[in-house]
Structure prediction request, 870 residues.
Amino acid sequence: MTMTGATGGLPGRAALALLGLIVGGAFAGLALSAWRQGGDVAGAFDTYLWNAARFTLWQAALSTLLSVVPALLLARALFLNPRLPGRGLVIGLFALPLAIPSIVAAMATLALYGRAGLLAPWLGPLAGGSWPGVFGLSGILLAHVFFNLPLATRLFLEALDAIPPDRWRLAAQLGMPAPSRFRLIEWPALGAALPGAAGLVFMLCATSFAIVLTLGGGPGASTLEVAIYQALRFDFDPARAAALTLTQLALTGLLVAGLMRIGAPLTGEANLTLSRQSWRPAPSPFERRLAMVVVLAGTAFVAGPILAIAVAGLRADLARLAMEPDLHRALATSLVIALASALLALALTLALLRLRLDRERSRRVPRPGWLEWLAGNGSALILLVPPVLVGAGWFILAVEAGQVRHTNLFGPVLVVTVNAAMAMPFVMRLLRPAHDAAAERHDRLAANLGMSVWTRLRLVDLPALKRPLVAGFAFAMALSLGDLGVIALFGSDDFETLPWLLLARMGSYRTADAAGLALILALLCLLLMMAAGRAGRQQA
Amino acid sequence: MRTFLLAACSALALAGHAAAADLTIYTYEGFTADWGAGPAVEKAFEAECGCDLEFVAVTDGVALLNRVRLEGKATGADIVLGLDTNLMADARATGLFAPHGISLENVDVPGGWSDDTFVPFDYGHFAVIYDSETVKTPPTSLKQLMEGGNGPKIAIEDPRTSTPGLGLVLWVKKVYGDKAPEAWAKFSDRVLTVTPGWSEAYGLFTSGEAPMVLSYLTSPAYHIVAEGTDRYKAAAFEEGHYMQIEIAARTVKGKDNPLAAKFLAFMTGPGFQDIIPETNWMLPAGKTDKPLNEAFSKLVQPSQSLIFTPQEVSDHRKAWVDEWLAAMSR
Prediction:
């Protein structure tokens, strides 16, 4: 018996088939609508579509510029001043936005910079009268930079950390002045990391949904994804949705292809491994003061919205909120969905990892076959198709099948599956090293003992993979808890999750309630992300 | 795994499925709000029929039609309350509404009423409401509003979801005709935000975030009666005001529910109509027992009622809303 075994390949193939079904079903829905109303789809490539496409790119470009340039300064300031007071805290703070759902960040932006935000009393006089608030582009940019400035900073910090210490030493021995040191040592490292970081930030902003939906405030500041959502939820205009989706697909396709070409990371998860390297150039007093100012400003910008959401959340009538049946229902739904999608993500990932390894071992040629490649990379391809697009395709199918009624299973099942699929690229990265190492150690023995797949899973794999599994589980749960993608299309009074409830409260400008909900949601996600981080670290 | 998923999802579905009421009415959010007509209407009708009435609210009138269209014949609604004459032809074309089968003798709207499916429950004229403390020189015509450039900002509703939002599109079309796209282009800088429904926009206005809002000529009556202030006023427009007649109908599902026809008949009488003026802040479209609060006599009267026929709106709604979208997304 080979170690591949017929049963060993089956779960993996089934997992791939499920991923294929999710994306394929979405395309089928869009194709169906395109076929039914062909002429209308062509007609839907109109001014509105081009305006939305232009705004998508424009806001993403601005967000990238505003995130990446200050991040270069910040990373440099943090790197060159290892003894800066509170440096560790600042770096820890910069990991926080990644753990916060984007709808919470949108709420946080309003709580700080909004018309009734914490800063409004100070901003008002500056604006000459009353503070006009941050509807539209300004709000979108603030929220995007809040997310991506810390991400880019951490990526650049990693690049600087990777510079071999002897270069610094050499520079010091040669008495190199700061400008030449920057040009010859720092810039090559930063410049090499720049396209990847900028590309990732651009991609994240071009596909951002919840932030644009809540802060956009009208067709003037609407991205393609928000336009897709509105075409379906507002109008039910499937022809327009199909045209918009095709445009968005072409856009993300080009972006992902571009990112892969420049070798950029495809996911916004900066697992910072800071080397405790001993030797760094001593900054001049002027540089040190400058670094202080830069770090202070960066810290204030990132900490501001987080503090604002805490303050506004605590000011909300939490006691009343906690007693609301709406909240209980949404919380229960969210938890069940997050639990189910995290389990599903783990199961699918394990199946794919097994399949990939089996194919790798059984091949006799140096290049991986298509099945091995798909098992290893298929889950990352899901990033090509943002959740709203998947949701849109299935929404059209559901309508065609007469399934848009509140008491059916269609919505929940789809939300669980898509959330699981979206978490898979991350879970894959967490599990793969430990999984492959454990397989290396135990496969022969398990095969000799003739263990079945399930016995093996129970007795061998699960104990060996406990920590990465816990990390992956918590991470996937946090992602699902905070997600506002498919649920935005399928949610209703009878099927609501926490982010959906938050969206509804924000939509009806019940700001105090929304802030309270945002705080609860943020705390839940933070706890899970911290658990994931802990389990992940202990494993390493 | 799969068993677990199924179990989890069935639990979810069960948790979400409240006990079915005897009569389910889909309506818009402003109607069911605490201060809205919904709670009082529910109490009055339940006392009369000895049944359980349930309102299900969506953001606004156009979204209401979309929701019913999406649910199709499987809809949960017995009655849909909150469409208007602008949506009437489209609503009829869905085939999802059944003839009302009631006497229309109580119905009283400008121009009269004889439709066999849709029943009016109130009417009014769209208007720009402004805060007289922050807006010293309000626009006196639609032209001034649209072309006033840097004037005070306004919150409007999205015509893809909201009947006032659609009303503004039609109003502008009436006044500008083929020149509407240019007018929207000039207007777009003046728009503070576009909300999905009337209640969101009006919420922004009352909380002081928007100095002007698209609402109704009758809206100031709310502030006079409930808050004792005439600070919030309607801007009278020279070109006249677009009129809205709000309608309800029973669905093909509601046709089998005797309570649906009973409710429609109740809706045209004093039990319902007396509630409307001081909760929905619109003019009654049926028989009342109480005279109108005198606050209503202080309101701006439209110099002219503007309206398209339902068929005209149905023929052009998509094209006209697309014009709006193209101009507003610039």
Summary: Residues 77 and 292 of chain A are 8 Å apart (CA to CA). The mean pLDDT of chain A is 86. The radius of gyration of chain A is 24 Å.
